[in-house]
Design brief:
Layout (H helix, E strand, L loop, with lengths): L12 H11 L3 H15 L11 H18 L3 H11 L11 H20 L9 H6 L1 E7 L2 E8 L4 E3 L1
Antiparallel strand pairs: 1-2, 2-3
Helix pairs in contact: 1-2, 1-4, 2-3, 2-4, 3-5, 4-5
This protein binds zinc ion.
């Protein structure tokens, strides 16, 4: 961390080029960067300790989430870890299979979130009506207003 409290991600351009070449997709380098940004945003870099499998999986999940949002397919998202991930894992990094699983989960979480309709977030109408005393509506206003037992109103 610098004096200005800015955080930096340093990367090795020849490593990035090598992963893009070996996987034949630019999403590879992007997924590496997304993973590193994940470490920053999750606060891992503030602990000043060696990375560990738990942190790695959390950063992996984040990278899957972001790559979906950037437009990568699941296959493109996984290409880098499939090619570069260590089969059995290391002291700091989990085995490839576990990393593939969490990256997929992150990607699918982002997809689910995108497909969620706004109505999925509102409670069941029948539950609301049980706790309400009156409904009222106004001419020229398409909304229905509900008033509950303690005279609080809500808009449904
Ligand atoms: Zn990492």
């Amino acid at each position: 961390m610098s004096k200005e409290k800015k955080r930096y991600i340093r990367y090795n351009p020849s490593f990035m080029k090598r992963v893009n070449d070996s996987t034949k997709t630019d999403w590879a380098a992007i997924s590496v960067l997304a993973h590193e940004i994940g470490h920053h945003l999750l606060g891992h870099t503030l602990r000043h300790q060696e990375s560990n499998p738990g942190d790695e999986l959390a950063a992996d999940r984040y990278s899957g989430f972001i790559l979906f949002q950037m437009g990568a397919t699941l296959e493109e998202t996984l290409r880098c870890i499939e090619k570069e991930g260590d089969l059995h894992g290391t002291k700091t990094h989990p085995p490839r299979r576990a990393r593939i699983d969490v990256i997929s989960e992150g990607w699918k979480d982002a997809k689910r979130l995108k497909n969620k309709k706004i109505t999925d977030f509102t409670p069941e109408r029948s539950n609301i009506e049980e706790t309400l005393k009156y409904t009222c509506s106004f001419v020229g206003d398409e909304n229905t207003y509900y008033v509950n037992n303690v005279n609080q109103n809500g808009l449904v």
